[in-house]
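S1.2 Input.
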Amino acid sequence: MNSEKAKAEFTIEPFMEGDPGPHVKETISLAKESGLDVEVGPFGTTVIGEQERVFELVSELVKTSMGHGASRISLQVTCI
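S1.3 Output.
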């Protein structure tokens, strides 16, 4: 397992004014529960940690957001 770090930045759509909806709420909860460093912004969320864990979490995040009604996920993963 690689001990290098990775950063995943993601934005989940559709945007819902005033209430992010379950597709966003459930995905952010999953990220926060991961034990990785999480920064939630107004238009996206960033997760930083060991590469293998970030890569695993990205798969879980995509499945969770789509399973709760997301129509699109913009994702950027960077090895740091």
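S1.4 Remarks. Strands lie at 5-13, 37-40, 45-50, 72-79.
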